Amino acid sequence: MRLRSRVGWPSTRAGLLANSRFRSFWLAQLVSQIGSAAVPVTTTFAVLRIGGNAADLGLVLAVGALTGVVLQVFGGVWADRLPRKTVILVGNLICGVLATGIGLLLLTGQARVWHFMILSIGNGVVRSVQRPATSGLVAQLVPPEQLQSASALLSLTRSVPSTAGPTIASLLVAFAGPGWSYLIDGVSFFACALLMAWIPVHGVARVKESFWRELRAGTMEVLSRGWLWQNLLSHSLWNLGFAMFFVLGPAIVISRSGSVAEWAAISTGITVGSVSGALLALRIKTSRPLVVGNLALLTGAAPFLAMFLKAPIWLVVPAAALATAGLDVLNALWSSTLQQLIPSDKMSRVSAYDWMVSLSITPVGFALAGPLGKAFGPRRALLVPILLILVPSLLASCLPSVRSIRRGARGTARDREGAEPEALEGATAKT
Predict the structure, then answer these.
(1) pLDDT digits (tens, 9 = 90+) for 10-54
(2) Three-state SS across the chain?
């Protein structure tokens, strides 16, 4: 039996950032994202600068990704068992210590490749708990009718800093050394933890069962809701297909023109599309969020179709932007729907399954793209991801269980624990 504390929400008419608790959380995420923007590129420079090679760099990145995938579902259980604010706060402190330590080692010339492996594994462990905890915490901080806007704003917070990340990293490495990038990252984590500490969170009081019982309960929560596992399956196939773009795309573009600049332009279009999609998601209002979200995913086929038809680069770039814009629209609609329809005390476990599917299937797409391109030629191989994107997304949008998920005038699924989402038509808050 679950016990819930009542939360007094601020007036939704005052705007999302008028909610002081969410505003503090949003600022914390913004500070962290700005501080971390340069780190992905810096890591490449740093590992190679200390004597590592491409294989070392690949191992550093792989161990972190593998750690996150393996521990994701277990992290979701802990994110539901422990206070989510505490999970995120402690995670930021751990990441701050790791980043600061690497920065100091680089500045003193003591950094080794195995140090980066420890950093990568540590970050993977923290992410496996923090990601599902964040999904659950947002549902505690924001009233139901603002969940879609909250998801879109947080997506925007992640996208915008990343646009300047490579440039910032290059400047820091060139003029100050990679160590300073990690020190800035460490400071941003500590600042994020400080902001998190000031957020009052009304927790969800409940009777805890054994770890394995709660793991099973999270699994059954996913399997018992047709619309949920059907969307996860569809989204996994989308991820599988779209991941191939980052292997087949450069092969086609560079072989056609011999210019790396064209692929750089496409990469910029991808980033711009992500920002545009998050902005669009702030404005979208729909009574059938999952139908609209799955239809938005159809745009993912645009850059593949453009390259298959040998379109000029000035058409491929906006096609790539359109693809990621559709993805961000889906992400906002999907996240807010989960946060409304899944009981709060199971939200992190369900979110963990969502993350696990995305994180585990993407490397498979990377791995398959090369053999497909070699077997059929890069251009003909584009037909495979096109089908993987279009067919599942279309089918998902037509499924009765998916179409039955609607947003009505009042109430949320979180107020009706144990009820099936399909029985809540007209009851969930419209965004």
Answers:
(1) 444 347 788 888 999 999 999 888 888 888 878 878 888 888 887
(2) CECCCCCCCCCHHHCHHHCHHHHHHHHHHHHHHHHHCCHHHHHHHHHHHCCCCHHHHHHHHHHHHHHHHHHHHHHHHHHHHCCHHHHHHHHHHHHHHHHHHHHHHHHCCCCCHHHHHHHHHHHHHHHHHHHHHHHHHHHHHCCHHHHHHHHHHHHHHHHHHHHHHHHHHHHHHHHCCHHHHHHHHHHHHHHHHHHHHCCCCCCCCECCCCHHHHHHHHHHHHHCCHHHHHHHHHHHHHHHHHHCHHHHHHHHHHHHHCCHHHHHHHHHHHHHHHHHHHHHHCCCCCCCHHHHHHHHHHHHHHHHHHHHCCCCHHHHHHHHHHHHHHHHHHHHHHHHHHHHHCCHHHHHHHHHHHHHHHHHHHHHHHHHHHHHHHHHCHHHHCHHHHHHHHHHHHHHHHCHHHHCCCCECCCCHHHCCCCCHHHHCCCCECC
Please indicate whether residue 280 or residue 416 has the higher confidence score (pLDDT). 280
| Angle between helix 260-281 and helix 313-341 axes, rounded to 10 deg | 40
Output the pTM of the full model: 0.78
Helix axes 313-341, 245-257, angle to 10 degrees: 170
Confidence tier at 417 by pLDDT (50, 70, 90): very low
> Distance between CA atoms of 291 and 311, rounded to whole angstroms?
30
Q: How far apart are CA 183 and CA 63, in angstroms?
A: 22
Tens-digit pLDDT profile for residues 182-235 = 999 999 999 999 999 988 876 555 556 788 888 898 889 999 999 999 999 999
User: What is the phi/psi pair of residue 7, to 5°?
Assistant: -110, 130
Q: Please answer whether residues 242 and 323 qualify as being in contact, where contact means their C-beta atoms are separated by less than 8 angstroms.
A: yes
Instruction: For each of the domains in the chain, give its residue range(s) and CATH number, in order of start.
Output: 14-148+157-197 (1.20.1250.20), 211-424 (1.20.1250.20)
Instruction: Kindly tell me the sign of the dihedral angle through the C-alpha atoms of 336, 342, 348, 351.
Output: negative
- Cα separation, 346 vs 339, in Å, equals 10
For residues 136 and 159, what is the distance between their CA atoms, to the nearest angstrom? 21
Q: How far apart are CA 147 and CA 282, in angstroms?
A: 10
**How large is the greatest C-alpha to C-alpha distance in the chain, in angstroms?**
64
